[in-house]
Design a protein that fits this description.
By secondary structure, the protein is of the alpha+beta class. It contains 2 helices and 10 strands, in the order H-E-E-E-E-H-E-E-E-E-E-E.
Amino acid sequence: MKKLGFLSLPIATILLIGAACSPATTTKTNIAATNTAVTTNVPSGANEAATLSVIMLLNNGNGSPIRTFNTTVPADTTALGLLQKVTTENTMTLDTKTSSYGTYVNGIGGLTGNDKQYWLFYVNNKAASVGVDSYVLQNNDIVELRYGSGSSS
């Protein structure tokens, strides 16, 4: 019986250490360009079952968004997946093309690219460094597709 007493101390220590190492919850708040606050609780080291809060802006090139969408998506969703969700849920047309560089957006809601203007892809107000089909969303991202010539950022 005394041997069990010696074992209970290490087991209790392991349980306490395990409890201290469990993931914490972090609250993140992001104020979008539309002054809409999106606050979510995301476990530190979020797993694949987590949900992300994101904002999608569609801009026809006149300097202000034509549509703003606040939504949630599963972790590991790409910007293209977000765009497909938003356009489907809002009965908007989406025209994509695939090239050797990946998938790009050719048209949204009937506004189609041409030789002079096309859909530009931005994340958090910066031109994306990868294509819409390659960018994996992060919590509180602001994804924007701007219709324009690319000469202004």
